Amino acid sequence: MLRSGGRLFLVLSGLLLTGCLYHFAGGGLPPHIKTVAVLPFDNETPQPTLQRELYDLMRRDVENRLGLREAAEGKADAIVRGKILRYDPDIPAAYSADRNSQATSTERKLQITLDVEIVDQTTGRTLWTRKGMLEEGTYAERSEADGRKQALTKVVNDIIAGAQSQW
């Protein structure tokens, strides 16, 4: 009797383990997606460098972190495209006061809002989309470029995470 109880335990353990492995194996892009084209995002902001900065970060990280090869738009299995909707720099984030109780900003933040989608060009299906994605970066006075890089890095991280967990 003890022997059959041990066998039952092993069978149930095996089924449980198989179920867990199946559950954790999900995510990622479909297996036929091997190449990607990252398109320059439309830029509806007055900040002209945003488009290029985001494009460069996206191309580097999509290839390195998702393991996809870059391809021309017409030959790629998937495309990443989007629109930069808003760029709000110079938002006071931290203050200090001098002897005369004059408050001055010591840290600022900026916000970037955009729409993004990843499209499977083989099927025409949208694999992942995010409308109104908002990211922030903080920076010291007169260091806006640092805050912009921080916010754009967060945007790219969100897109990569979305692509990896889209199922």
How many strand units? 6
- Straight-line N-to-C gap: 44 Å
CATH class: Alpha Beta
- The poorly predicted ranges are 17-26
What is the general shape? elongated
Q: What does the largest sheet look like?
A: 6 strands, mixed
CATH architecture term? 3-Layer(aba) Sandwich
The value of Rg in angstroms is 23 Å
Counting DSSP H or I runs of 4 or more residues, the number of helices is 3
CATH superfamily: ABC-type transport auxiliary lipoprotein component
CATH topology: Rossmann fold
User: How confident overall, as mean pLDDT?
Assistant: 85
What is the domain tally? 1
Tell me roughly what share of residues is in helical segments.
Answer: 25-40%
